[in-house]
Amino acid sequence: MSEEGSSISRGPAPGDVLEGRWRITALLGRGGHAGVYRGQHARLRYPVAIKTLSVDPRSAIADDLRSRLLTEAEIGALVRHPNVLKIFDVGSTSAGEPYLVMELVEGETLRERLDRGPLTIAQAVDLARQVLAGLSALAQHGIVHRDVKPSNIMLKPGRRGVRAKLIDLGVARRLRGNAGGDQGEGFLVGTPSYMAPEQLRAQLVDPRADVYSLGVVLYESLTGSVPPRPTFVERYAVEPELEIDELPPVRQKRPECPPWLESIVKRCVAVDRNARYQSAAAAAEALAVLARDLGLPSGARAWVEDPTRAPIRTIDDAGPDERTTRHIRRGGGSRRVPWQS
């Protein structure tokens, strides 16, 4: 084992109790720098999910990972909404690794669902309304998610239909002052295929950036794909004249899409943020009016699968790379730090 590898803990094991409160019961999954476990409160026994970091403290990204986890804890504890993942606690393991205790969601991500094909129109509208409700709750606390994408939306089935939950608040930011200005943030953060133009240009963002990202998610939910962005997305930040294209019309791939729904998607993903809905609440209201006027089913009725109403996904419609990317620019250079979703 290398010197670097020997300094990384394998994480807690089933049966371990973290700080006398949270009992680990099973490993759910492990990524490059984190593990997610099923757990329960040691005394009350209600189920939870527990995320721990496993990173060499000497690593160049160690501080960024810890900062991201703490940001997720602080924001998740602040915002209580049925469409935002609940955060219960944060602490440190016996090995000194930070951990996060979260709501346990039994279900799948929207990414996993879209890998089987697009949603029906009713499902896509119901999903978008729920995610917008969660984004509106964040905005009420002055928070921009900055990484809305299918792999950051959990789908929890239940008797009243599918509940969508926003997860991974690690790159969210609190607004300070006039966040809609043109002053650059100094780095890019987000997932290129879903980033608003102002994010791509490393400008300060406001909730309209989340409206754009949700619009792309709605577009993909209806069509099965989104156009790829250039690999070197940092070009947008250093080449202001580089144009950012509008998305192709939804009806090119989904002819039965109602024109009003197409217009809502188009407004959400407008390159000019002043042309978008100015809040998640405004976009949600537009979808609510559309759903009422078209008589679209909602709740459990919207999520009754009907394979005749949604096109089959083709190999050419493969989903985009959903790794969250942070390009930090210092002294004219840049470094790319991928976060595995």
What's the CATH superfamily of the largest domain, by name? Transferase(Phosphotransferase) domain 1
Structural class: alpha+beta
Radius of gyration: 20 Å
Number of helices: 9
Q: Say what the CATH topology of the largest domain is.
A: Transferase(Phosphotransferase), domain 1
Lateral strand order in the biggest sheet: 1-2-3-4-6-5
Fraction of residues in H or I helices? 25-40%
CATH top level class name of the largest domain: Mainly Alpha
Strand residues, percent = 15-25%
| SSE string | HEEEEHEEEHHEEEEEHHHHHEE
- Low confidence ranges: 1-6, 178-183, 307-317, 327-341
What summary fits the major beta sheet?
6 strands, antiparallel
Number of E strands: 14
End-to-end Cα distance: 27 Å
- Globally, the shape reads globular
Task: Report mean pLDDT, rounded to a whole number.
Answer: 83
The CATH architecture of the largest domain can be given as Orthogonal Bundle
Q: What's the domain count? A: 2
Description:
- The chain is of the alpha+beta class.
- The protein folds into 2 domains: 15-102, Phosphorylase Kinase, domain 1 (2-Layer Sandwich); 108-339, Orthogonal Bundle (Transferase(Phosphotransferase), domain 1), CATH 1.10.510.
- 28% of the residues lie in helices and 21% in strands.
- The protein contains 9 helices and 14 strands.
- The strands form 4 sheets. The chain has a 6-stranded antiparallel sheet, covered by helices on one side. A 3-stranded antiparallel sheet has the order 7-9-10. The chain has a 3-stranded antiparallel sheet with strand order 12-13-14, with no helix packed on it.
- Helix 4 runs antiparallel to helix 6 (207-223) and helix 4 (121-140) runs antiparallel to helix 9.
- It is globular, with a radius of gyration of 20 Å.
- The protein starts with a helix and ends with a strand.
- Mean pLDDT is 83; it is low at 1-6, 178-183, 307-317 and 327-341.
